[in-house]
Amino acid sequence: MISRIIFAAGGTGGHIYPAIAIADELVKLNSSIEIKFVGAKGRIEEKIIPANGYKLETIEITGFKRSLNLKNISAALKIFKALKDSKKILKDFAPELVYGTGGFVSGPVLKAAQSLDMPNVIEEGNFYPGVTVKLVSPKADKVILNFEGTRKFLKRTDNTVVMSYPVRENMKQHNRADAARYFGLDESKKILFVFGGSQGARSINSALLKCFKNITGSGTQIIWQTGESDFEMVNSAVSSNNSVKALKYIDKIDYAYSCCDLVVCRSGISTIMELAGFGLPAIFVPYPLASENHQEKNARAVTEKNGAEIILDKDLNQKLETSILDLLSDENRLIYMKSNISKLADKKAASRIAAMLVEMVTKSSN
């Protein structure tokens, strides 16, 4: 059994929620377990982690700019301090295991664990591994990958294992009629769900503004999460259209997942795994500025398995309307995509990973 563990997770919900899901499973196995999270100062983990009932300690660290930039000097100096601070946190807490979910905050914490010879695990949900994972994976005791194909990008593979990326446990499948009613829509008609992440996506919003009338004219309804900055622009254009429900942010996103027939969205790994869990066909529009272009690589890994389609940001205006209408009119294609994307999901992923961690600690203590 594990009595003390540190999770290094932060920067984005995609790095934080999987760690929380695993932590929740560990608590189920041992109610007296001591859990501490380490995150980056000033990032969203300062809100999310305490709100989920876990202790958080922060370190000062930022990611590197992917071009010649004076800010990289400051980032490099912060890394040295972050390593020192991480070592102090680890020595004081004395965890039996250190677990990182990728992202820049995992780097110094996992490196500190390795220098202190503490058992450590790094997880990579994206198809293409980030800089942090490439840096710490050679000396990690275990590297958990979401995609089999990710192994080819790593120097060392004998410490890798392929397991589904955990998703938020508060996601549940609702009755379609109840979920449609939640948005004031008709469950007997096709429903398209469009979102660009919690902050929205200007390119997706702009492209949909050009074609939403033709889409609703075909009998399709739209749930549209616009993000804060684009809400007024979108809402003023669609407010007279009863087939469109525009919202700044959807807190209960599982209701949208439960009643829609097709999703248009970015391709961050947490989003992909949520769609897989709900068995939802999707048109992925990868965020073009994502580090190492990982969103496009994620999307292509799914489209190669016929679980989704992809439109690049630059092609949105030309292709979005046709792609949406073609898919929604082809029920067999939707069923085929639904079946294929569902194969990526494992609703017990967090509990399986928790069990593996317990086994690791048990073996190392014997």
Can you describe this structure?
With 366 residues, the chain is α/β, with parallel strands linked by helices. The protein contains 14 helices and 13 strands. The strands form 2 sheets. A 7-stranded parallel beta sheet has the order 3-2-1-4-5-6-7, with helices on both faces. The protein has a 6-stranded parallel beta sheet with strand order 10-9-8-11-12-13, sandwiched between helices. Helix 1 packs across helix 14. The longest helix has 23 residues. It is elongated. About 2% of the residues have low confidence.
Topology:
Blueprint: E1 4-8, H1 13-29, E2 34-40, H2 45-51, E3 55-59, H3 71-93, E4 97-100, H4 106-115, E5 120-124, H5 131-136, E6 142-145, E7 160-162, H6 176-182, E8 191-195, H7 202-217, E9 221-225, H8 231-238, E10 244-247, H9 253-259, E11 262-265, H10 269-278, E12 282-284, H11 294-303, E13 309-310, H12 316-328, H13 331-342, H14 349-365
Parallel strand pairs: 1-2, 1-4, 2-3, 4-5, 5-6, 6-7, 8-9, 8-11, 9-10, 11-12, 12-13
Helix pairs in contact: 1-14, 3-4, 6-9, 7-12
Counted by DSSP, the helix tally is: 14
Query: How much strand content do the residues show?
Result: 15-25%
Largest sheet: 7 strands, parallel
What would the average pLDDT be, to the nearest integer?
93
Form type: elongated
Strand order of the largest sheet: 3-2-1-4-5-6-7
**Helicity range:** 40-55%
Terminal residue distance: 12 Å
The structural class is alpha/beta
Please give the number of β-strands. 13
Order of helices and strands, N to C? EHEHEHEHEHEEHEHEHEHEHEHEHHH
Which regions are unreliable across 5 or more consecutive residues at pLDDT < 50? 64-70
Radius of gyration: 21 Å
